[in-house]
Amino acid sequence: MPAKRSKQSDTLRAAQMYYLQDQTMDAIARELRTSRSTVSRLLSAARDSGLVQVQIKTPADLAPELERVIRRRYKVDVHVVPVADTLNEMDVLDRVSMQAARTITPLVDSNAVIGVAWGSTLSAVSRHLTRKTTHGTTIVQLNGAGNTQTSGITYASEIIRRFGTAYGAKVEQFPVPAFFDRAETKRLMWEERSVQRILELQSRVTIAIFGVGSIDAEVPSHVYTGGYLDSTDIDDLEASGVAGDVATVFFRDDGSDEGIMLNERSSGPSLASLRKIRRRICVVSGAKKIKGLRGALAAGLATELILDETTARELVEQESAQSDPIFGFLNSLDGL
């Protein structure tokens, strides 16, 4: 334990000397009585863990303005990830996931209960997590993953396992179907003590981390491609005007969810229960998810939003210039 504390202390000290005091790595190595290569590793650890976040500002950088508009309009803390228009959707997802991992890690503390929803976006985020030592922290799966073709355990548990490994946390899976065949079956299952234990743990979640599902995204949401929904389910969602989902709970683009019958069979947390969680981190990549994102924001599901620049611009552009004067300024800038 002392060795870990010493390394953390050295990481902080090296970062302060390098970034705040403009000391060279050789000078830092002499003061810390270590090698230059060790200092390089300490600085890399400081960046990877989120202790140091490097921002490059240019006159053409739209991210700060986009963040300001989105923050004011939707009342969320927002991180816009600059990306080139030439990148494909998988590369954009990778960039956004990397930023999300760096944003999440500093927020995770000991004795916390972290709720994680499975999905294509969270799978990518989980691959970029860096290690942080915590004590008494639990990672709990927010929604079941079973379907008629597979138990879903391998896919969902791998995501949850990566979060647990990164933070040295206990992992609690939720081994139930994503959607029950009948709402009555779900009601009876929710009375089982083994299930109630997970539900009680979910009620104590302090940070929820999730993406937004969309049926027409270029990187398809796993719930729409993994055998979870049949053609009747898809038809029902379209008839109900569904825009997207969070943790396999569906909503319209105005944030409403009344009358969406599939939600009665979903194992995911209700939108009302999600809104009770103090910190709710939503990660979105790809402009095709804009309809679902708007619905999630209208429903008040996110307190923090991490998204790519293209999607952020699309989110801002969909409001008229009359409703937001800053929009006109943004629209006049090159590249918007």
Task: Summarize the main sheet.
Answer: 7 strands, parallel
Percentage of residues in DSSP E strands:
5-15%
User: How many β-strand stretches?
Assistant: 9
CATH topological fold name of the largest domain: Rossmann fold
Termini separation comes to: 51 Å
Counted by DSSP, the helix tally is: 15
Return the CATH class of the largest domain. Answer: Alpha Beta
- What percentage of residues falls in helices of 4 or more residues? 40-55%
What's the short version?
This protein is α/β, with parallel strands linked by helices and 336 residues long. The chain has helices at 2-20, 25-32, 36-48, 63-74, 89-104, 120-126, 153-167, 183-189, 193-202, 222-225, 231-239, 271-275, 290-298, 309-317, 325-332, and strands at residues 77-81, 113-116, 138-141, 170-172, 207-211, 242-246, 249-252, 279-284, 304-308.
